[in-house]
């Protein structure tokens, strides 16, 4: 979805926000396998970014974090806005927890990150929405 410089800059800003808070994380702008079956599951109206930690982090209860930023383009005015963020933590057993800003901002799963990490993760999600919606104009109906 990085079709222009502004959008690419916003993606880079999101990566930098995460790495500023968690400098040992490595970012992955193509977190999906490129096989046909996987590509059928990828949402074309989202940006997916993976973050990987060296080893398993007990405070995160995961080794990798997949961040999916969801967008909606208004068909009337063409305005594209970030409408939510989905974040999931994975280890060698699969998904361990999930956070959705679309629903109720609660982290649910088998193992949850520490409260400190949960708070930082929610702040990260707020910053993502702010980055992508900072130039968007909200129209009142």
Give an overview in words:
- With 141 residues, the protein is an alpha+beta fold.
- It contains three helices and six strands.
- The protein has helices at 5-21, 36-41, 115-133; strands spanning 26-28, 46-57, 62-73, 80-91, 94-100, 107-109.
- The longest helix has 19 residues, at 115-133.
- It is globular.
- Residues 137-141 have low confidence and may be disordered.
Strand order, main sheet: write it out.
Answer: 1-2-3-4-5-6
Number of strands: 6
Q: Please give the alpha-carbon distance between the first and last residues.
A: 28 Å
3D shape = globular
Largest sheet: 6 strands, antiparallel
Order of helices and strands: HEHEEEEEH
The fraction of residues in strands falls at 25-35%
What is the average per-residue confidence, as pLDDT, rounded to a whole number? 82
Class by SSE composition: alpha+beta
State the share of residues found in helices, binned by percent: 25-40%
Number of helices: 3
- As residue ranges, the low-confidence spans are 137-141
Using the CA coordinates, give the radius of gyration. 15 Å
């Amino acid at each position: 979805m990085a079709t222009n410089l502004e959008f690419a800059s916003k993606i880079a800003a999101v990566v930098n926000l995460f790495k500023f808070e968690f400098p040992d994380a490595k970012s992955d702008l193509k977190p999906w396998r490129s096989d046909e079956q996987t590509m059928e599951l990828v949402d074309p109206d989202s940006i997916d970014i993976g973050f990987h930690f060296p080893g398993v982090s007990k405070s995160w209860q995961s080794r990798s974090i997949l961040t999916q930023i969801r967008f909606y383009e208004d068909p009337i005015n063409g305005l594209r806005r970030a409408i939510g963020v989905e974040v999931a933590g994975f280890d060698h057993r699969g998904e361990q927890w999930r956070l959705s800003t679309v629903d109720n901002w609660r982290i649910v799963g088998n193992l949850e990150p520490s409260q400190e990490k949960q708070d930082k993760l929610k702040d990260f999600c707020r910053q993502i929405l702010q980055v992508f919606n900072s130039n968007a104009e909200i129209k009142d109906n």
